[in-house]
Amino acid sequence: MKNNSFNQILQSEISRRTMIGGLLTLPAISMNLTPNNVFGGAISKSLDFVCVPENMNDTISVPEGYEWHKLISWGDPLFEEMEAPKIQRGAPFTFTRAEQEKRFGMCNDMLAIFPKKYQYPWPEVSKDWIFCSNNEYVAPYLMITTKDGELKPTPSEIEALYAAQGVSVYEVRQDGASWSIVKNKLQNKALNRRITPFTEVVFEGAAKNHPWIKAAKVLVNANEAKQGNIPKNKDGILCGTMQNCAGGFTPWGTYLTAEENIDNMFFNANTESEKLKAARAIAGFEFDEDSFGYANRWKFGGPQQFDLAHNPHGPALYGWIVEIDPYDPNWAPRKRTALGRRKSECATCVITKSGQIATYSGDDQVNEFVYKFVSKGKFNPKNRIANRDLLNEGKLYAARFEENGKGHWIELTLAAANAVPRSMFETPFKDNADLLIRAREAARRLGATQMDRPEDVESPVDGTFMGKGSVYIVCTGNQSAEGISGNIANPRRTNGNNAVEKNYTGHIIRINEANLDHAATQFEWEFFLMGGDHSAALANGESADGETRNLSSWKDGVQITTGQRFAMPDNITFDNSGNAFFTTDGTADSFRCNDGVYAVSTTQAAPRKVKRFLTGPIGCEITGPKFSPDNKTFFCGLQHVGDEDAKGNRYRGKEEYPPSKFPNNDWPRDTIIYVTKKDGGII
Ligand code: FEO
Ligand code: CA
Fold first, then answer.
1. Among 188, 246, 429, 486, fewest CB within 10 Å belongs to which?
2. Which atom of ligand 1 is nearest to the CA of 623?
3. Is the dihedral of CA 91, 97, 103, 108 positive or negative?
4. Contacts with 99 (C-beta within 8 Å, 6 or more apart), sequence order
5. What confidence tier does 483 reach under pLDDT thresholds 50, 70, 90?
6. How do residues 25-34 score in pLDDT, each as one tens digit?
7. Nearest CA to ligand 1 atom 1
8. How far apart are CA 596 and CA 339, in angstroms?
9. Measured between alpha carbons, how far apart are the two ends of the chain, in Å?
10. Residue 38 reports pLDDT greater than 50
11. Distance 398 CA to ligand 1 centre (A)
12. Relative to the CA of 343, which ligand 1 atom is closest?
């Protein structure tokens, strides 16, 4: 890009093209708008549906006048001439890594949809689409047949469990209100594909040559070489991606997947390992091990690269934001180390006033932080490939919330992080690579605000991705033993005995960036919603396990939320009219209701009225909410269906059937569904 201002270039690009109704009326260029007046889309829609009642039914419930449909479930083939899975009791098909690499993965989370023909601004209509879904983790008891009442996966089945995670990329055809998967011919480099913990990736950004990554690379590639797999890129590592929760998508049409609970897949086959002892002597390693908790989480063993005794730096390969090009299967996914490492949640991209890219991320663990990355370079709307290095260099920040509704973004620089006085247990960061790989430690030292499981961090944008200043931070809650402490942005309720309680029901914060510019370092913030029961200032409720808790949504005597009660908000998306639709993960811990989807207008003042739009079947959380660009279809994921009963007890196999038979009145399967209006209108 030459020295033209970004807005000039964008303006000429938009004028050059015939726009589909509405986009030109959006405030893509002029940023002088108040936060409550930023959703001037062509479509205005009030939330006039009749709410779904609280229920614990083993199905999807949607309001009168709406209907739901199944799109894809775990195990569905992505290629022609493959059989549909025959799932009876677990072990649905020849359950191998090779087989799972051709079928939709387990535990679907984030969903992004790309027009099959890329253009900028993104079009509102298309017949053909490419979908990218995260497959976050695996629920072994729902995937493998127990033997003599015990779960004893074979080595082949264990590899398949690893391969069921990652990302699924697949073509979808829209025919009016109907959406269906387009299977591809089974050949190398088809557009449909799985990206698993064994796929070749390339590390980019300042941490790409960190010694932990280099050490792990040698072992991963050596272990995969035993199976005949050799990287094609000079810097390729066959570690793929896994534990992919929320995500994002860039204006240039790439998918961003965030690696969350990376601890889940590592084990330690030899507690006396000299290699692991040597690693623990390295500065920062024990903090990392403790912070992520990966000492010995996976109980079934598996490929050697996930054995800490053999590959103690394996976890350094995960926790990143990974960029995938849905249009180009020949381009190896890139791990963008400049965005920092953590239990990464989401990577929401917004274009700043000057044309840089701001990317927001959470870290879904109690007392962790909210992050923002601002690219050094600017988005080139004329050449999508020219944007491939944009996420390699920029400034990384963590959020600090202050009293009086003010806050700022703390830049995580080497000089600042090393200038903070350290305890005898803390070690300085060697260089910028070291800071990025230990980003949590840098945020903590520099005084960022500890949050109650910040998961989704989203900003409403249209097909231009021009930001309008507002950002929503969804905090799922804090139910941990160490979670009793709170702070200004993560309040605690007190119960009838004036005892301080944990944050059982979560909350949503809204920030407004200074000057409505996503490159700003200052912001204002407010509580947008509080989870809980909105009917009283002190609502003592009985949890699923019989405990009496303060489940009120009130805060300091102020009612922030009204309408339907909910608990543990998790993911959030926006329609074209300024309504937020958010999902829950753990409602049944507090209320006798399955997890669901709730809608609220972002333009109303508190107390804001929440409406229950959808509830899911038993045992699942709802994930990946997403509107089609024309807002006539709403998609969401059902993750770990049947993994818990109505009281929150985890399904553990043995001889009994899981508590859910969704979606086929048989063995439960994680599924993406979509909702349409029977009259074909806007959701
Ligand atoms: Fe998909 Fe943060 O759980
Ligand atoms: Ca979640």
1. 188
2. 1
3. positive
4. 93, 160
5. low
6. 223 333 333 3
7. 245
8. 31
9. 39
10. no
11. 20
12. 2
